[in-house]
Amino acid sequence: MKTSLKVFLFLCSTFILNYTVSGYTFVDQTEDILNQAYGSLTNGYCFYIYNIVVTRESGDLEITSVNSVGSVNISSSAGNPISQTFANQWIGSISIIFIANTQGSFQIAVNGGTVIASIPFNCISMPYPIQQLNTGLTFIKYQDSYHTTLKFNVTRPISFDPNSPFFSVNSPYNCKFSALSTQNYAMSCSIPAIIPVYPVPKNIVVTIKNVLDTSQFFDILIPTFVKTIPTSETYSPSSQVYQDNLASPDCVKTFYLLWNGSLSGDSYYQTTTSTDVPITNFISSISLQKYKKVLANQNSILSLYSKSYTSLDNGSSSKYKMIVTQNYTSLEIASFDYLNINIPFRIKPVFGVTSWQGDRVVDYVLNSDTLNIPFVSEISIGSYTIQTKLNYPYGIFSTYRTIYQFDSVIVDLNYQMNLNFYGRASTTSGSVLDTNPPIINSLELIGIGGLQTLVRISVSSSSGFFKMVINFDFQMTSADLVSGSLQNGIFEKVWDNKNLEYIEKNGNGFIQLYDIAGNKVNSWVKSYNVSSIPNIIIQPQASVLERLSYPDITYFFFYQREMDLSTSAVSNTLYVNFTNVNKDTMVSLQIFDGIDKTFWGKWDNLLNLFSIDFTIQPRAIAGVIEWKLTYPLIEYYSYMLPYYGFNNQQLIAITPVSDRMPPLISKLVPTQTSSFISWDVTITDQYNGIKSGKFSVLGDYDLKPYNFSFVVDASSSPMTYQYTINITLPTECVNTVYTLNYVELTDKLGLTSFYEYQNMELPYKSQFLIDNNDINPFLPILADYQNRSIALTCTPFVDDPSPPELKEFSTSVSTLDVGSNQRDFDISFTVADYNNVSSISTRHLPFCYAHGPMLETYKVEAELVSNNPLYTAEFVCHMKIPYGFGIPSTGIYFSIHGYADVNSNIAGFTYFQLTQLTSSSSMPITFSRAIPVIRETSPIKQNSHTITLYGYQFGEDSQIKIEYVGGNSTSSTPTFLSTSVIIFDGITAGQKGYNISVVGSSVQSNVIQFTFPDTQPPVTRAPQSCPGIPECGGPTQGTCDGFGTCRCIKPWVGFDCQSQVVVIDPIIDPNNPGGGIDYNTTLPDGETITIKGIINVISLRELKPDGSLFIELPFNKWYYTNITGNSSDTLRFLYQSNITQNSLTTLVSVTLEFFKVEKEIIFANQPVQMLPSSLKYNIQLSEYSFNSKVNYLQVVMSSSIQASVEDTCTFQESNQNGENSDYFKLQINQNSLYGRFIKRGLVDNKIRSISNSLLNSTEIQSSQTSNFVSQFVGINIPNYSKSAILDPDFSLLIDSRPAKEQQTSVCQSIDDSGLSKTQKIGIIIGCVIFGLIIIISVTYYIYKKRQQTRWTNSINNKISKN
Questions:
Q1: For residues 1195 and 1100, is the Cβ–Cβ distance under 8 A?
Q2: Could you tell me which residues come within 8 angstroms of residue 280 by beta carbon, excluding any fewer than 6 positions away?
Q3: How would you list the strands of the sheet with 66-69, edge to edge?
Q4: What angle (nearest 5°) sits at the alpha carbon of residue 637, between those of residues 632 and 642?
């Protein structure tokens, strides 16, 4: 290619990608399809959004604004910056409204004048009328809405924006629309409120108007999702209101409503089943939250509603009504009032402040008589603010009754900054003024597999880098330094992106960067030429059109569609794929079964699909299980399956009873004596059984809780459990009130009820993590909440105002290298009560605290060493300091908090108090950066092959040392290596355990140990030859796997790779599941014949252990349904029949599936390749009444193939030596009906081996002539309890070897009088043998005659001699 042409193409591509007109670089990141929608605003105007990045080049002016100019067809325009970094880059969007039916281009200008790019547009108003292409719509319930899909004959997307005037929906329905494709639109509807008595329209009416003339319109009528009951029926649910009088001050107060609805009929408001009656609120603006089904049996269902209130709701009232519809008129069946809400405000601590300031440390002391533990602490150091939930005993160094002294240690690096404490106190520390913010010189996001990203940044800061936070989730600190210095260095760490809630859906990635002088900079990932987070699909813009750019689901298959959850958990697998698939990412599946757990999966290289293993716990609510599939960040919902052609893949829970209610306290009895106080707690659970419980009791003057817990034996699942909380009173008694302030009860499934007085969460977490609607364990006894407390009056009363004091303190080392692998040491200390009035409390174990810069804290609970005499106690803390703790300070600083006497006088020793006692109050630190340190590893299993190590200072020459249990050792070279992460292969499978370490530059890291339970040695299989002459058709047609199975090379198929696929259309018989085949072919003499094949399911046989027949039950009648749906790849037909044995009816379902194209499916965790034009039979049996537990079942299937003329040859053979499947073949000339029977089935939801039998007995007779051959096959099912699923399939093939060349063929022609080859050979052999017999007989006769003559002569001679 000529140089000039290369330059021309380069310049063209540069212009297309970047639109660079001036020195500024312009990048348009808009998805084109999003700005191709019809104009649907008033007068047909178009609303388009352009996502752009403008970067300042050398010599350009700073960027102050970016906007659109230069088109008379723009009605309005606005620039919306997302980020502006030092005026060098502008990231944001330009939103423009264009006049209808205009086209042209507009310009992008910087600073109101400099044009840097020109962008074309074409605004076409929405046409009128548009035609609906699909009818007979039905709704699918998902969460609290109902969903269907509308299809229109349009060529551009329609923007059903809520503000668009061209459409409306009749009241009381509220419907939203979003584009699935140019023609298809998801419609999601609900009824937010309804007033009795109010007529409910039988149809949802969607009115579409002409955007250019709104007087023109047409209506689309869709039958409502609302169910109604006739006038003759009534419905009266039982219900109860529980008002939570245990609300914490200024926190949540939950209002519970429970009702028990009859399951008879299918008639209630906003429901697909009769179990789903929501409560609507039509008076108060405060709506109910968290509707949840919690219990069910075959007769009724129990549902829970809750509403959270705070003190902000004080003075308001709420009223709720339960509504059903009768003859499409709303009817009130129950109402609930909640009047005069009055929740106390939280009492916030009021602090008086003093400070002690020494070398590099500021110690602030706060005095309060209103301290409630825990409380949320907010401290600011310059622009760095940390919110912490402070739990006992942090900072407490003196208490007496309700008077507290509390301290907070600030390690001062001598930078001048403002310090703010709890909004109550502020001061300035340090002498060096540094207001220069830190700078990110570069940012790299490197995908290392799954959703893990290696983040690498280069930072400059005059004071030094402290921390970077991305999306409020990922944090990198100064300890992550890999080269350079804190002032100018490179830092890296692995980010696990599974916390998708934190990822900005526009992909910009919000960055907060701090230095150690308290300066802060906000920016975005895209500001550093990083397009997005690796392996995350970014939503282009939040709009009703966003799904247009999403991948489609191309494959979706649940390993088990129906899950029997009656008694135990069931494991399952979802197999899924998408268009333009990214194999390096991960996918997640959230199951909404009342536990709502999320499961993760990854790409399976063998199946070429994503696979997600998941488990659903027993006793979920019966029926369709809703779910959400995330292909980060794209979300797909269970109601979307019909649109993607998988409407037969809904997940079904089968169970007679359901339990999603955690254990509750049904009775609470307090008791008080002179020596102890106690609570007898009765705990109940409906079906799951009680697993464990936790309780805490707190005294008014004692901030240290009394903690209690129990765990029920794993072998039992009690529905009722009695537990006693017992507190022995000290001899030095203090008048106080003890309160049960924390309860956590868990059932066998992990469902937990929870209550905590003073329960708090950090405000910034609430939008992602916090569920304030935990079910209160006191729910059944809320009216008796006073029983939570016991008031204790002591006689005699002991008044001791003096807490114990610390008198000795020492550390086991004098210095510490926080970059090494030896970061452990001990702190030993002694406390004493000098007045000898109150003995030291051995229940109050103190904590040792280490303090670093920027509010860095590490704590360890002490161990009691000695308590003799009673007024003195010795303690030790085993410190394990985190890597890099304390830098860039030159030391770490200590304090002790939480020791006490038995009168609940709690005390501590601040850092400054320690300085007065000992020189060990702080410890000098260094930070080596040449020692490899393993922080953690990826999850390790016994069969793990690839392992990831996370840590610090992995050098370029790093090798992994692996030492196996038993003495063998080896080394491995990383497949991926950076300073903070190593990925390597090569672990030998089946080991009992091994140690892993990293060695680099002759320095060895810490050792990570793994041990595993003993396992059985793997079974070695003997090699087997494969079928076919030559084997597997020869090297150009297939290869043998060494174990009896051929691996065919396309287009060859079959168990011996000597056949090819015949493309046909199936014949479907609605009377029985008999797949039919009609195929025309030509004989060698030119005659055209028809080949017909028939497959059928005949009967169910119960057999004895010896294989003899006990009973045969034929299938006399089948019920047929076409369930094909919208799939273009397959046809699906459902046949259902039943049989009755011993008064138990067994349902037999046969799903006949015809594959138009080649497709891989999964059955029994085994990939199965379905050929084009193949027929698959999915056979499912429900519970069967066996005559004996040792008997088994046999499903009998028949298959036959027949030619329309007799001058043909037939042949049949089978192969039962394959590892995974048995095969048989029925052949006429070169055409064969090929059957495959998988040797595994799903028996009681578990994978079980099954066998197959070729039947040819007096009861079932296969037959063969020259133009007809049939075979009966029995699929043998072991004795089962609940269900069995089988999956054979059939194909019509062309064989490379005609039937007449097979030795056991049967032929019919003029010259051979219908004799087969075998018969002819038999006649020939018979004639030969007969001739030989005659010859031998004659020869033998002559021989014997001569012998007789010789014998006679000999005798005569002897006689004559005598």
A1: yes
A2: 191, 192, 193, 194, 320, 321, 322, 323
A3: 66-69, 102-110, 114-123
A4: 125
- For the record, the structure tokens of 798 come out as 């002991």
Contact, 1092 vs 1202, CB < 8 A? yes
Report residue 625 CA to chain centroid gap. 14
Q: Which amino acid is at 26?
A: F
Instruction: Report the distance separating Cα 701 and Cα 1268, nearest Å.
Output: 95
- For residue 504 the two structure tokens come to 């900005």
Between CA 276 and CA 287 the distance in angstroms is 17
The tokens of 382 are what?
């310059």
Element (H, E) at 792: strand 789-792
Beta carbons of 169 and 188 less than 8 angstroms apart? no
Cβ pair 600, 575 in contact under 8 A:
no
Query: Residues 1191, 1195, 1200, CA angle at the centre, nearest 5°?
Result: 145
The 3-state DSSP class for residue 239 equals strand
- DSSP per residue, 723-790: EEEEEEPPSS---EEEEEEEEEEEETT--EEEEETT----GGGTTTT--TTPPPTTGGGGGGGGGGEE
Q: What CA–CA distance (Å, rounded) separates 431 from 441?
A: 28
Question: What ranges make up the beta strands (E) of 224-358?
Answer: 238-243, 253-262, 279-280, 289-296, 300-309, 318-326, 329-338, 352-358
Over residues 306-328, the mean pLDDT reads: 70
Nearest Cα residue to 850 out of 883, 894, 913, 911: 894
Q: Which residues in 905-958 belong to E strands, given as ranges?
A: 906-909, 922-926, 933-937, 947-952
Cα–Cα distance measured from residue 918 to residue 900, given in angstroms and rounded to the nearest whole number: 21
Measured CA to CA in angstroms, residue 928 lies from 351, 481, 487, 817 at distances of 41, 11, 17, 7
Give CA–CA dist 952/819, Å, rounded.
9
- Dihedral sign for Cα 162, 166, 167, 168, please: positive
Eight-state DSSP code of residue 302: E
pLDDT: is 1253 or 1065 the higher one? 1253
Lowest mean pLDDT among 17-31, 33-47, 562-576, 1097-1111: 17-31
- If you average pLDDT over residues 791-797, what whole number do you get? 74
User: pTM for the whole thing?
Assistant: 0.72
- Asked whether the predicted pLDDT for residue 155 surpasses 90, the reply is yes
In this predicted model, what pLDDT tens digit does every residue of 35-63 receive, in sequence order? Answer: 889 998 889 999 888 888 888 888 888 88
**What single-letter amino acid sits at 862?**
A
